[in-house]
Structure prediction request, 160 residues.
Amino acid sequence: MSPDPIKSPTPPESRRKPTMLVRLVYASRAAEPVGAEVMNAILRHSRQHNPAHGITGVLCCSGGVFLQALEGSRAAVNRLYARIVADARHREIELLAYESIVERRFAGWAMGQVPLSRLNPALLLKYSASAALDPFGVPGAVSLALLDELAATASIVGQL
Ligand code: FAD
Prediction:
């Protein structure tokens, strides 16, 4: 006789659904010119709240364009993205990539920042038609390749 499903015991830890890791990449345009004060406020808030939610990532801003990667559990990333989309400091938010991942690429950063000096024309030209940060004009995979190269060349600051 099969067991009564209502009386079945809770499955052991090993049989529970694993937490799924995802990476989300989006681009947006700043609503106002982004000064150091705005950037620092965003980074301060991110570094204060992201660790508690298991979020890591990187944020670039150049010429009024934001490019951000968020990594963490699917639920935490989705919740944070909903908050970010509602933020009046930016607009034209475009989801570039969303995928489940086996491991993080930006595990070392609660929210890393790329200093403008590291977004140099040669690097930007490598990944797009002009020497400007233009995630809207290239596939999401290309923006991710740019973020990867920035991580690989120690161009992301604010390590945990
Ligand atoms: P508040 O009014 O500050 O707080 C309301 C309540 O929500 C409080 O109880 C607070 O403790 C709680 N809360 C605040 N933040 C979080 C959170 N992240 N998760 C769960 N509870 C929270 N914010 C980030 O946290 N991480 C980022 O990586 C991030 N990246 C950003 C990138 C850009 C380009 C921009 C423009 C903003 C980014 N922000 C980020 C800020 C984000 O958009 C919200 O401003 C921020 O999460 C605060 O939201 P709020 O004003 O609703 O919360």
